[in-house]
């Protein structure tokens, strides 16, 4: 889905209203003109109801109200800018909303959560929001938003043409060839603005790894595939592992592959690291004779999302303090038999779509509940079944390194007793660890890495 296609200049307006209801009415007026099947009152009610159960305020003056209805088009996106600000009761800080992106989606649109997540990710980037807010005219705003959603930044990036970068790229090609690598994995976020489309020219198959928006179209980019990894640790070796894990679960690479990786510090505009990885050896301990890294019922994007939230929690903590957390993903039928609620389940009664970890608004909710004792139990399709659950599995066969206590033991044990994957954020060390069949794979280690 090419996201820029859902933008239309006629649906980009400067808002006059100073309250949310009025602003939504203005946005609806420009959205439904060519869709007579859509009823303004019904949509408004749906949007406001959604807002009252779970806010769509993303922070930093941006809101993304959305609703699903039966409609002919798949998506309609309307954008309202307010210089004076719109009052939004659910913003924590009373900060006025300056930019509203209202998304109407057909109830049958299957990539709805992905589209929502991609737009949310884009407007969580402060640089982008600033550039949209400061656009001299609505035509400019249209142009900037279209460019941002197309994955093309307004700033031309020539950085990868520097002498060192050119040499690193050439050497990566030589190393890949000389060591029989099946692909080169390139960490695109090394460059502000990413890698210029078409500027990557290696003989070996190249895979782009990035945190930025991916619209699935690699044509003309020079890359065979783009792997989106939402949250990277700043440590390069941990970045590598996360990206490989995502590529593996998505079937982009296989255990028999050898990959040449090239990257650098995010935003530094310079490649500084090259590593050759035998995938099987890297993940050997985790496989222990099996070939399935991912439990049958777990969607790769769900695991990716949980890893992203877990790493963000480990890096950011909560209100300046470190937090610990345990996520148990997949095989929920069995997992639930091994759990006991420690508190009333805070997710009880919410619609599945609203409590799906793929829903971009769940990030904050999950982080908010991370301080509750106990584990998050997450279904393979992303629906959060419960939080605050005590895991009652025991495992006497796998010894954990000293210093890891009962949270890690519970994660390890539940991954032995069931097919689930457990991800643990340690409050004492900030480590993020994945458990599968009792075997641990550190995804982020404090103090490790090259940086
Ligand atoms: N069986 C369990 N199920 C769910 N949560 C648990 C379980 N055991 C412990 N926890 C959670 O882990 C928290 C920390 O426990 P403990 O310090 O023993 O674990 P740890 O593995 O050392 O983790 P950390 O590195 O975060 O301290 C507990 O307060 C509790 O919230």
UniProtKB/TrEMBL annotation:
Keywords: ATP-binding, Nucleotide-binding, Nucleotidyltransferase, Transferase. GO terms for molecular function: adenylate cyclase activity; ATP binding; diadenylate cyclase activity. It catalyses: 2 ATP = 3',3'-c-di-AMP + 2 diphosphate. Gene3D superfamilies: DNA integrity scanning protein, DisA, N-terminal domain, Mannitol-specific EII, Chain A. InterPro entries: DAC_DacZ (IPR014499), DacZ_P (IPR048544), DisA (IPR050338), DNA_integrity_DisA_N_sf (IPR036888), DNA_integrity_scan_DisA_N (IPR003390), PTrfase/Anion_transptr (IPR016152), PTS_EIIA_type-2_dom (IPR002178). It comes from the Bacteria. Coiled coil: none annotated. Residues 287-446 form the DAC domain. The keyword ATP-binding applies. This is DAC domain-containing protein. It comes from Nibricoccus aquaticus.
């Amino acid at each position: 889905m090419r996201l820029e296609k859902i933008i239309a200049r006629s649906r980009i307006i400067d808002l006059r209203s100073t309250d949310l209801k009025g602003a939504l009415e203005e946005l609806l007026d420009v959205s439904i003109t060519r869709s007579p099947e859509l009823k303004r009152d019904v949509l408004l009610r749906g949007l406001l109801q959604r807002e009252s159960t779970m806010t769509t305020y993303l922070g930093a003056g941006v809101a993304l109200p959305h609703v699903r209805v039966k409609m002919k088009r798949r998506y309609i996106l309307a954008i309202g800018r307010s210089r004076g600000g719109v009052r939004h009761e659910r913003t924590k800080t009373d900060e006025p909303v300056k930019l509203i992106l209202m998304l109407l989606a057909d109830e049958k649109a299957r990539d709805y959560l992905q589209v929502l997540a991609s737009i949310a990710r884009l407007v969580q980037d402060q640089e982008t929001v600033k550039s949209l807010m400061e656009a001299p005219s609505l035509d400019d705003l249209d142009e900037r938003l279209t460019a941002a959603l197309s994955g093309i930044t307004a700033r031309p990036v020539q950085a990868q043409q520097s002498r060192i970068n050119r040499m690193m790229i050439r050497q990566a090609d030589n190393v890949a060839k000389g060591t029989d690598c099946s692909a080169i994995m390139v960490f695109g976020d090394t460059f502000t603005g990413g890698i210029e489309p078409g500027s990557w020219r290696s003989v070996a198959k190249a895979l782009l790894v990035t945190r930025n928006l991916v619209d699935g179209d690699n044509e003309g980019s020079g890359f065979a595939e783009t792997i989106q990894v939402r949250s990277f640790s700043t440590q390069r070796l941990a970045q590598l592992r996360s990206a490989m894990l995502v590529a593996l679960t998505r079937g982009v690479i296989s255990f028999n592959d050898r990959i040449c990786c090239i990257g650098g510090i995010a935003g530094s505009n310079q490649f500084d690291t090259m590593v050759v990885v035998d995938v099987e050896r890297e993940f050997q301990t985790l496989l222990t004779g099996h070939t399935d890294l991912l439990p049958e019922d777990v969607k790769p994007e769900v695991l990716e999302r949980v890893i992203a939230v877990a790493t963000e929690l480990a890096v950011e903590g909560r209100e300046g303090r470190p937090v610990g957390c345990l996520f148990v993903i997949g095989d929920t039928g069995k997992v639930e038999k091994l759990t006991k609620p420690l508190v009333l389940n805070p997710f009880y009664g919410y619609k599945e779509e609203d409590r799906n970890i793929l829903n971009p608004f769940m990030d904050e909710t999950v982080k908010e509940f991370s301080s509750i004792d106990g584990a998050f139990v997450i279904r393979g399709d992303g629906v959060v079944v419960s939080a605050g659950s005590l895991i009652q599995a025991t495992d006497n066969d796998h010894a954990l390194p000293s210093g890891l206590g009962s949270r890690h033991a519970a994660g390890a044990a539940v991954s032995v007793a069931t097919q689930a994957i457990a991800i643990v954020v340690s409050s004492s060390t900030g480590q993020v660890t994945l458990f599968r069949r009792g075997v641990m794979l550190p995804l982020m280690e404090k103090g490790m890495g090259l940086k």
